[in-house]
Design brief:
This protein is an all-alpha fold. It folds into three domains: 71 residues; 41 residues, no CATH class; 61 residues, no CATH class. It is 64% helix and 0% strand. The chain is built from ten helices and no strands. Helix 1 packs across helix 4. The radius of gyration is 24 Å and the shape is elongated.
């Protein structure tokens, strides 16, 4: 660790503790998901004399402030999850699809290079989604062969909208968590994972 990095850590702790002592209202502000909470804006507004210009340093300062204010209060971790989800959605909405895809590829490459496993539950939560449970997978597959979940058309294709509604009613309290597209896509993933590798016959010469 360089002297500059060590000095930045000490500064973040000092100013973070100062913010927690002088502005305890930051705790209530952070707990309100409808209220904007931007570390750089908070530091520049409440600590103007410190002339903090680095967004990374501002984030470290506010992070230490929250640790002090939420000491022995587990609500901090739940609010972090909620606010990260909000940030992720805001980034997705602001970036064009091609830039968002490039951003994801870059992040995946960095994780692969550092051998960091992907936390699927955290990833889905950050995107505002819910992971499929084994029981929900089982019910989904059973609905595929249920004739009452087919379209009333000559083709008699599966009604994925009706399947999604059934899953939402049973597993998600009627909330619109699953949709026709997500059900169709998830079925394809299940079948892909269940597919056994083909065994080639030996060629007798």
């Amino acid at each position: 660790m360089s002297k500059h990095q060590y000095a930045a850590i000490l500064m973040a702790r000092r100013l973070g503790a100062q913010l927690a002592n002088e502005h305890p209202e930051l705790k209530d502000q952070y707990l309100n998901p409808d209220e904007q909470f931007t570390p750089s804006s908070i530091v520049r507004m409440l600590l103007p004399s410190e002339n903090v210009t680095s967004d990374d340093l501002a984030s470290s300062i506010v992070s230490h402030t929250l640790r002090v204010l939420f000491l022995n209060d587990d609500r901090l971790y739940e609010m972090r999850r909620i606010r990260r989800s909000q940030l992720s959605k805001a980034i997705v909405a602001a970036l064009p699809p091609e830039k968002w895809s490039a951003r994801c590829r870059k992040a995946n490459a960095q994780r692969y290079k550092k051998n960091i496993p992907v936390d699927v539950t955290a990833m889905l939560s950050a995107r505002g989604r819910k992971q499929w449970s084994p029981e929900e997978n089982s019910v989904l597959l059973s609905l595929l062969v249920d004739t009452s979940f087919k379209h009333d058309t000559p083709k008699k294709g599966r009604d994925y909208g009706k399947i999604a509604t059934a899953l939402n009613d049973r597993f998600h309290g009627g909330e619109l968590v699953r949709g026709a597209v997500s059900c169709r896509s998830h079925i394809a993933d299940i079948r892909k994972n269940q597919k056994q590798p083909r065994i080639r016959k030996a060629v007798v010469i």
